[in-house]
Design goal:
mainly alpha, Growth Hormone, Chain: A, globular, heme transmembrane transporter activity, transmembrane helix, transmembrane
Amino acid sequence: MSEKPALGDTKLHEDQTRADLENNVKLEAGDAAQRADYQGEQDGHEAPQPTRLYKRRWMIVLLFSSYSLCNSFQWIQYGIINNIFMKFYNVDTFTIDWMSMIYMLTYIPFIFPVTWLLDKKGLRVIALVATALNCAGTWIKVASVKPNLFAVTFLGQFSCSLAQVFILGMPSRIASVWFGSEEVSTACSIGVFGNQLGIAIGFLVPPILVPNVDDMDELAHHISVMFYITAGVATLLFILVVFVFQERPKLPPTQAQATARSIPPEQYSYTASIRRLLRNRPFILLIVTYGLNVGCFYAVGTLLNRMIIDHYPREEVNAGRIGLTIVIAGMVGSLICGIWLDKTKTYKQTTLAVYFMSLVGMIVYAATLSLGHLWVVFITAGALGFFMTGYLPLGFEFAVELTYPESEGTSSGLLNCSAQVFGIIFTICQGKIIDKFGTLAGNIFLCVFLLIGTIMTGLIKSDLRRQNANLLAKAAGPSDCHDVNLAAASIVREAQL
């Protein structure tokens, strides 16, 4: 990189740079060139754009993580005490399963208009709509605590499920817009962390707040307390988003983000972006594999109460604790994977390893569930959760790398859409298999698809476009930055063809 190529040799320089990136070059620590002072043109050459990291970025990602937590808590709050809500509303088990599956079903038709809105209006508008819908849903549920008002509580759950569409695709977008290249995967993990923590609390708290009592008035009181607490938290978070949440920093955090910002709005087409993504073969493989893995997690979470109660009757509280163990272990896995990616940039290798261990964890969990020892289930479920939910931020970040400079919200949205489709299919199919053949057969059903996903993950070609763009910008000194910027722009144009 010491010799300056001629402008006419930009393509040759780009090819050589790519070879260097694959074989010799590692990212320099941090986004060390966080220069708020713009360096003008030197020796007739164009200087790199100024970048800066703002302390406010941590407040933004933590606030997002908090309202994501509040929303995801409600995904599982019915399913984990499935038998209690069946008794209170006098409905069957499949109907209560739909209180979780509505989160998956709602996502599918609404994800495309929501990602379009994200691209057109930005992060702040999406955050406001998400928290408003979530808040409205919680107060509708407060008004539904009567045995004859199941339709009302379903309406409240639908409102919360619609809010989820505005939430799930945001972690990678917030990470890219606010964080430096050496912390972007960690930031994405923190964003996913909130969603996982909400699920963990959703497993733990409802069995404690709503005990399995026979008196309907007492049961209504317990359910009402849970709904009021949720509504209070959702309202507080909505107010915080109104006054605190910011669209984006004044200066971009990385050269890759600066390049993405520089694309003129009139050159961007949402439908063209979707078409480019659907022609990206590595990304298509990732869409399928991500859906298989996360769909299995959704099925396990939704049906966990049924599986545990089947082998350990009247252990609703321990079923919740096992769910908590799955998600807490997954949160640890997410953070470790995020930090590991920031240090090593080994996206495909890490994703493949975690996917394979998810398969191993599912096999062990399926084999030990019926042994009659709850402590064994806690251990195997924890191992399953560490890898299966630890995979979530890996999929998001790998997708951003494969699809740069396309919108992070769009790529994440397509991943989540796949997860919802497979989640509905797996939950319904596994539920029917459990009813007819037992829990072992239902879990083997999931193992088969995790095996398929592992094989397909190994076939994904690792094309780290975002890392290439950052490296091209940072590998050059002031004297040859003009040519490197041309090469980086060439990568962007090539990705958009």
